[in-house]
Amino acid sequence: MSWDFVVPVSLDDLLKSGAVNQYVVQDVLSPKQLPLHLNGAYLCLPYEHGPLCVLEHFDTVYSVLQFVSVMDAFSQYNKDYISHGSSCVFSVVRGLSVSLPSLLMSGSLSAVDRKQQLNVVKMSVFLLCKLTENLESDSYRESIITAPSKKEKAGSKGGLQWEGVREVVLQCLSQLLQLDIRSLWSLSLVEEEFVSCVTCCCYKLLENPTIGHMKSKPTRDIIIHVLGVMVKKYNHMLGACVKVIQLLQHFEQLSCVCAQAVACWCTEYGMRTIVGEIMREIGQKSSEELAREGSGVKAFSCFLSELSTLVPDAMIPNISVLLPHLEGESPSLRVAVCEVLGEVLVRVLSGDKLDDLARADRDRFLDTLQEHIHDTNSHVRARVLQVYTRIVNSKALPLCRYTEVMELAVGRLGDKSVHVCKSAIQLLAAFIGHNPYSCKLSSVDLKKPLEKEVAKLKEMQENMRAREPVAVISSCDLWAAMEPEVSSTVRAHLEASNEEEEEEEVCESGARDEALALQKESKGEAEEEGKETEMKKQEMLVQYLRDTESFALQVERAIAVINNMLYWKTTTVVQEAVQFCVTACEFSVADSVCGVRKMLPLVWSSDAAVKDAVIQAYRRLYLNPHGDTTRAKAQTLVDSLSELMFDASLGTIQCLEEIVQEFFSSESALQTCVVQVLWERFSGKRETSTLHRRAAVLLLGMAARAEREVVLSNLDTLCSVALGEKVTDNYLLARDTVIAIINITDHQSKGVPLRLSMDHHLFSCLTQAIAEGVVLSNPHWQTFMEQAIRLIYFLAESPDQLCARLLQRSARLLLEQISEAWDLAQLLSVCGSVAFWQVSYLERSVSAELRRRRGEKEDKEEKAAPVTKPMEANDSCVEEELGLTGASAEDTEAEFIRKICETELMGNLLSVFLPLLVRVCSSPGRYSHTQLTTAACLALSQFMMISPAVCSDNIRLLFTVLEKSPLPVVRANAIIALGDLTVRFPNILEPWTPNLYARLCDEDASVRLTAITVLTQLVLKDVMKVKGQVSEVAVLLLDPEPHIASLALNFFNELSAKDNAIYNLLPDIISRLSDPERGMKEEDFNTIMKKLFSYITKERQTESLVEKLCQRFRTAKTERQWADLAVSLSLLSVCERGFKKLQECWECYSDKLTEDSVYQPLLCIMAKLRRRAKPQFKSQVEEFEKRLTAVHTKGLENVENEENETGQQLVENMHTPGPKSTRRPTRGNTHTHTHTHTHS
C-alpha cells in the first residue's frame, strides 16, 4: 500500500491532496449511485476481506457524509443512507475489535501490513465518529422541531433506531480504543487529529440536554470511559481540561456530568493531576471574567461542589487556588468553595489520627468557614451554616471549637434572612444531638461543681509551688566522682593479701549504699510523677466542666431565642423552631419543656402547616411511647403527659386536650391500657404523688371528650376519691375532678340533653364541699367553687333550686359561727357565681331546650296538619321564605328569658344579696378587707349581667371602683367585668368608653395588661368602636413591660387588617400624642409614629395623609407640635402625587420653615424623592428643595418679596421686543442667583 490516510479536519480536506502519498477521495457518488454501492460494501463484509473492505469502499461511505451535509436532515433518503452507511461502519469496527488483538499480540506484522491496518483503523474510526455526530445532531433537531408519534419514536420503516443503537456504537468504539493500537503508529505517537476526531464526537454526545437524565446513564458512563482512555493512553489530559471548562461555560446542565467524568478519570484511570489542572483553571478566573460569563459561574460552582463529594482527597493539594474566590464578588462561587472545604473536613480531615500538617490544614479551613458565617450575602451565610451542620452531624468538628461555633450560630438567630435563621436552628439542633457534654444539667447546676473543682486545682497548684526545688545529685554521679580516689587510697595502704578482701567489702558496701540511694530517688520521682499526673487530671476535669458550662449557657441562650421564634409569621421558621424544641426535649436538655409548652397554643393556628407540625411534634414526644409491653408503653405515655401538665395553666390544658383527644378517640389496646393506668393512679391503687393524681384525672377528662362513658360510668369513684369526706384537704384535686366531669357535657346532641336528678350523690358532695369551704380559709376553695357551680348548672335537672339551697346553707353556716371578713367574702363569691351561671343557664340551656321543643312541635304539626287552602298556603310559604316564622318564635323566646331575668331572678333569693354588695362596694373605708372588697366588686359585676336595669343602676358605682380603688386586683377584675358588660349591654356602656381607655395609663402593670387585653378583644370583634383614645394603646408600644408592649403591637397588627382603620385614626393619634399637656418625649413620639406609619402602604392613603397633616399645621400652636407634624410627614413613603399635595399645601407650613425641626424632616423627604425620581420629576424636586432652603435661611417674607420682584421683571421682559432666547438666561440667572445667595 503506497498511500497513507490522514484524518482530516473537515470533510472537504479529503478531496484535495495535501502531501505526497496522502489518500484522496477519487469519486464522490451521486444519490442515485449510493444504494447500489452501499449494498455492495455491505455484502463484502462477511467474505475474505472483512474489515479491510473499508479500504475499497471508503469513498462510498464518504459520499453518504457529503450527501447528508447538503440535504434536508429529516428527509427519508437522508435517514436511509445514514442507516446503511452506519451499519457498514459498525460492522467494520466490530470486526477490527475481533481481529486486531491477535495481530497486535503476534508481533509479526510487516511494515506493509502495519500500514494497512493503521489505515483501516483511522478510516473506520473517522467514519464512525462522523456518522455518530450526524445521527446525534439529526436526532436532537428532530426532537426539538417536530413532535414525533410513537411510531416515529420507534423509528421509521427501514430507518435506524438511534436511541437504542447509540450505546452499542460507543461500546464498540470503546473496545477498539482499549486495544494497544498505538503500536500501529510509528514510535507509538498518535497524531492529534485522530485523538480530536474521537474526543470531539464524545463531547458532541455530552452536549445532548438529556445526557444527565437517569435513562441516559449507560450512555453517559461509556462516553466518560472512552474519554478516560483517551486521557490516559492518548495524551488528551490538557485537551480534556480545556474542554471541561468550555462545556461548563456554555452548558450549565453538564456541571454534575463533568464532575462525574473528572472523578472517574481520577480514580479509575489514575489521572489525579487532571483535578488540579481544572481547579487551577477555575481559580485563575478573575472577577471580570466571571461577571461576563453569567451562567458559567453557576456551573463552576455546581461542578466544584459535586466534585468535592466524589474525590475530596484529590482536591486538597490544589485547594489553595480556590481560596481567592472567597474574597470575590460571586456568592455562588463562595458557596462552592465553602462546600468544598466542608466535604474535605468531613471526608478527609477528620478523626484523631491526623498528623501535624493535616491538623494545621483542618484548623485553617475551619477558620475560613467561621469567617463566612458573617458573609455579606445571606445565601452564603445560610450555606456555611448548613456546611457546619453536616460537619457536626459527621462528628468532624474538634471539641475545642464547639462553644465558639455555637456562639456564632446563636448570633445568627437574629439574622434578617429567614433562610439563615432556619439554617442556624438546624445547626443548633445538630449540636444538641451530637454534643459530648451533659445537656441535662443547666448552667446553674454546673456552677457549684465547677467552683469546687477549681478550688481543688488551685490548692494542688499552691502545694506544688510551696515545695522549693532542691538540687539533688544522684548516687551514680556521686560514686563516679569518688571512685578513682577511693580506689587509689585502698591500693596504697592495704597489703596485697588483704587488698582483695577489703576491696570486695568496699565494693559491696558501696553497692548497697548506691542501691538504697537509687531506691529512695525512684520513690521520690514516682511520688512527683503521681502528683503531676493527678494535677493534669484535675486540670482536664476543670476544663471539661468549663466547656460544659459554656455549652449549657449557649444552649440556654438558643432556647430562649428560638422559643420566641415559635410565633414568627414565617411558616418555615416556625416549623424549624418546633423541630428544634422536639430535638431538645428528646435529649432531655434543661428547660426544653418550656419550649414544648410554649408551642402548644399553635394547635389553634390558622396555618395548617404550623398546626400539623405541632401535632406531629406532640405525637412524636408523648403519644408514641417506647416500651417492651403495652403496659410499659402506657406507663411511659402517662408519665410524660403528666410531667407536661404539672403547673400548666388552664389555657395549656385546653390546648393539650385538642391533641390528646384524638389519641383517646382511637380504640386500641394501648388506649385501653392508658385509661386503666390513669384510673389506678387517681384512685390510689398505686402509690403516687398528688400532682400525678391531679394530672391523671385531667387526662381522664380529656378522654371523656372522646368517649364520655370513661367518666360517666365511674362517677361514684370520682365522688368517693376526690369529693368525699376529705375534700377539704385537697380542693385542687376536687377542682380538677369537677373539670373532668364537665367534659362529659360536650356530647350534648340535638336530642334530650344529659341531666342528672337533683338527689344524685354527685350534687350532694358538691354542695356540701362548697358550703363547708365558705367558713374555711383555703386559698384553693375559690376556683373549686366556681367550677362546681358551673357543673351544677351544666348537669343538674333543676340547678336553680340546688343553688338556692346552697346559698341558704352557706349563709346559715356563716351566721352560726363568728363570721370574719374572709367568710363573708367567700359567701359573696358564691352569690356572684350563682348569678352569673344562672343567666348563662337561661340563655344557653333553657333557650336551647325551648328551641328543641319548638322543633319537635313543628315536626308533629307538619305531620298531623290537614291540607290548607291555597291562599293560606301561599301566605305561609312567603313567611317561611322571609324567615318571619322562625324569627318571631326566637324573639318571643328571647323576650321570655329577658322577663325572667328582670322579674323572677331579682325577685328570689339573689335580690337579698344585692344591697349588701352595693353597700360593701360603696363603702371602701368601712369594708377595707382586701378579699372582701375583691369578692364584692366581682359579685356586683356578675349581678349586673342579669338585666339592663341592674346594670344601669350600678354602672356608675362600678366605674368609681375602677378609678379609685387602691387595689390593683380590684381594678383588673373591674376591667374584665366591664368588658363582659360591654358585650351584653353595649348601649349602656358606650358613654363610658373613655373611662375604659383611661386604664391603659394605670400605674400598675397588671392593670395595664388586663386593659389592653380586654380592649383588644372588644375592638377587634367590633363590639367597641375605634376612636381617638386608641392613642393610649399606641403609648403602650413603649411600655417597660415587654409583654404589654407586644400585646399593643399585636393590637395594631390585627387592626391593620381592617380596611383603612389605622389610616383613619392616625391624624387624631398624632394630635393627642403631640399635645403639650401630655408632655411626651420627642424620641418616644418618633418611635411610636415610625411603627404606626409602617402600616400605611397604599399610595392614595399616603397622598391623603400628606394633605391632612399639612392642614394640621394651621391649628398647631407650639414649635413642638410643628416638629411632630413634620416628622410624621417624613415617615410617609411620599411619591409623586404626595409631592404635589405637599406643594399645594405650601401656605400651611411655609411660615414654620425657619425652624430646624420643621425644615430638616421636609429636607429628608426631598432626599428620598430625589433618589428614586425620574429626570423630569427630579428637577421639580430640586427646585422645590431650593425654595425650602431659601425660606429657611432668609424667611418667608423676604423670599416672597424676591419672587414678586422676579415676577414683575418677567412681565416687563415679556412686553419688551426682542429675541425669545433672551428670557431664558434671565430665568436661569435669577435661579442661579437665588441658589448662590441661599448657600452663602
UniProtKB/TrEMBL annotation:
The Condensin complex subunit 1 N-terminal domain extends over 89-240
Example of a GO biological process term = meiotic chromosome condensation
| Keyword Oxidoreductase (UniProt) | no
Positions of the region Disordered?
Answer: 1197-1240
Entry-linked Pfam families: Cnd1, Cnd1_N
Question: Keyword annotations for this protein?
Answer: Cell cycle, Cell division, Chromosome, Cytoplasm, DNA condensation, Mitosis, Nucleus, Phosphoprotein
Record's Gene3D superfamilies? Leucine-rich Repeat Variant (1.25.10.10)
Q: Which InterPro entries match?
A: ARM-like (IPR011989), ARM-type_fold (IPR016024), CND1/NCAPD3 (IPR026971), Cnd1_C (IPR032682), Condensin_cplx_su1 (IPR007673), Condensin_cplx_su1_N (IPR024324)
Q: GO CC terms for this protein?
A: condensed chromosome, centromeric region; condensin complex; cytoplasm; nucleus
Could you tell me the superkingdom of the organism this chain comes from?
Eukaryota
Report the protein's function: Regulatory subunit of the condensin complex, a complex required for conversion of interphase chromatin into mitotic-like condense chromosomes. The condensin complex probably introduces positive supercoils into relaxed DNA in the presence of type I topoisomerases and converts nicked DNA into positive knotted forms in the presence of type II topoisomerases.
Family matches, as PANTHER family: CONDENSIN, CONDENSIN COMPLEX SUBUNIT 1
- What name does UniProt use for this protein? Condensin complex subunit 1
Provenance organism: Electrophorus electricus (Electric eel)
